Write the structure tokens for this entry.
Amino acid sequence: MIRLGVCVSAVRRHPRGRQAAAVAIGALALALAAPTAASAVPGAPTVSSITVGDQPWGVAVNPVTGTVYVANSFSNTVSVINGRTRTVTGTIDVGDFPTQVAVNPQTDTVYVTNYNDGTVSVINGRTDTVTDVVTVETEPEWIALDPVTATVYVGNEISNTVSVISERTNTVITTVGVGSGPQGVAFNPVTGAVYVANTGSDSVSVISGRTNTVIATVGVDTDPTGVGVNPVTGTVYVANNQSGNVSVISGRTNRVIGAIGVGSNPAGVAVNPVTGTVYVANTGSSNVSVIDGWTGRVAATIAVGAGPVGIAVNPVTGTVYTADNSSTTASVITP
């Protein structure tokens, strides 16, 4: 776990599964890329903050409703934020030391990892209530989900595993062994591949979502933490916490094709599939590196609240949210 200061676009289910996912994402990119092209490399974004719970860790956004969810690790709660008014509309009690959040925009269901409990809280996004609790393995931290197959992937840091949860039954259907100290988890809805950053072994495990087996292991730099995927290009971005850079992996070859220097102690990574822009939360320097996904260069560095860990982007509005772990705020970056 990162201890300094102490994360999918909507794809509708379709009988043709991955092919439909690719079409849906491609259509979204074509429909929105032209009017939002100017925001791909923000010139002068505005930053505001919203007061949430104690030591917020993870953040996720539902692009359909615009609702934002922040896991407050020391408060054992999730703050629910209205993305339009930027006000907290609810606070939900969850397990012990919640860390990361994932949202299924199709079902409006929210999943929260509880690090000290070894559980995942399941929240109904319409009622803001916990409807189930799923037991996983030791110290679950980061989480991702597949909206096509309704599957959730949870990285268990101490167990060196990924728990695979069926959303339909809220049960663990299998457990996949990965590298040492898995943290960041990301999912490509087009290919069905799951990417897991193994902090202890300086590698990324690539899991086939079809077979739930590791199909490749990619070496990266020191202490990989957060992972983000561009489903349009298949490119994977890995924040190396102790190297101060981001490894760029080709999703086609599962090889590192570049490295991009960012701020101090990068943690969370978010990718806007519409613009290709990559956002990296730098915990040590309290800012966000904005990477142009087409050139692979840092286009801007934006100061946010103290010690950001989690980061999320709403691909519909282009708004970016950070969970400021050394504070009690979530920062909002408006392009």
Summary: The longest helix spans residues 18-36.
